[in-house]
Amino acid sequence: MSTRHPVIAVTGSSGAGTTTVMKSFSHIFRRESIRAQVIEGDSFHRYNRVEMRERVRQADSGEGPPISHFGPEANLLSELERSFKDYGETGRGQVRRYIHDVGEAKELGGEPGTFTPWLPMAGESDVLFYEGLHGGYVGEDVHVARHVDLLVGVVPIINLEWIQKLHRDQNLRGYSQQAVMDTILRRMPDYVNHICPQFSRTHVNFQRVPTVDTSNPLIAKDIPSADESMVVIRFADPKGIDFPYLMSMLHDSWMSRPNNIVVPGGKMGLAMQLIFTPMILRLMDQKRRAAA
Questions:
Q1: What is the pLDDT of residue 181?
Q2: Residues 153, 12: contact at Cβ < 8 Å?
Q3: Tens-digit pLDDT profile for residues 164-193
């Protein structure tokens, strides 16, 4: 952790709602004139797209160890910890981008499924903002979470996560249902061992729960909308959280436990701004005091 150069990390798997988090934090940063250095979890993958497919093929045929993007074998987690540590100490570090598609390839140069070169962070920044799979990771020789000042978890219930992945990979990427399910089953051990434990280390968790039947995700024709969902927000330390204020600002919300508040799914972005604005301003005040 660092007072002078704070680190904020959002951890959650693809389709969990991290896009909503990114937008909410972007609004806060812009409104409060905070300069954020953004780094993406995908940029710390160990292999490019072609290399990863070959590693998966080897694993499926018994020629190599099991592997998935959820596990440490497929990611540069020591480098991620070093990036957080270096930024916390100096406000500097190295960044690169993973090129997801043709649009990003035109913008960044390079081929889809590859990485841009590592380059120094450009300019001065007030905070480091990370969004990816491993912001709260802890392993035998790697402890990413200890360098994070504000750790946020975003996770849907498992059936909803599967529905979102099935729809995305079938409709946008052209995979068969069986291929998507094979991927889900392949990465399940890594999900249980390396993703789930992170949500016990977060300062705040957002868990989206649909209010429609998702008991069989394989036959779901639509992804439950925000209006067909509730979001359970859990605070690791509820001290200092103004629950009456939050419930007055978030219509139809209620407290389910002393450290939990439940809000309508469509209010998730607003809830994030109400919750995180004072937390971020507190980090900025501590930063100014340390600098003085």
A1: 86
A2: yes
A3: 888 877 777 778 888 888 888 888 999 999
CA neighbours closer than 13 Å in the CB half-sphere of residue 32: 22
Cα distances from 129 to residues 6, 135, 192, 202, in angstroms, run 9, 10, 25, 15
Query: Distances from the Cα of 183 to the Cαs of 70, 100, 101, 178, 188, in angstroms?
Result: 11, 18, 20, 9, 9
Confidence of residue 120 (pLDDT cuts 50, 70, 90): very high
Cβ proximity of 166 and 177 under 8 Å: yes
Residue 242 and residue 202 in contact, taking contact as beta carbons nearer than 8 Å: no
DSSP 96-107: --B--SHHHHHH
CATH assignment of 7-287? 3.40.50.300
**Residue 179 tokens, joined:** 């291929």
| Alpha carbon distance, N-terminus to C-terminus of the chain | 19
**What gap in Å lies between CA 249 and CA 175, rounded to an integer?**
42
Beta strands in 52-161 (DSSP E): 94-95, 119-120, 127-132, 150-156
Domain boundaries, the chain: 7-287
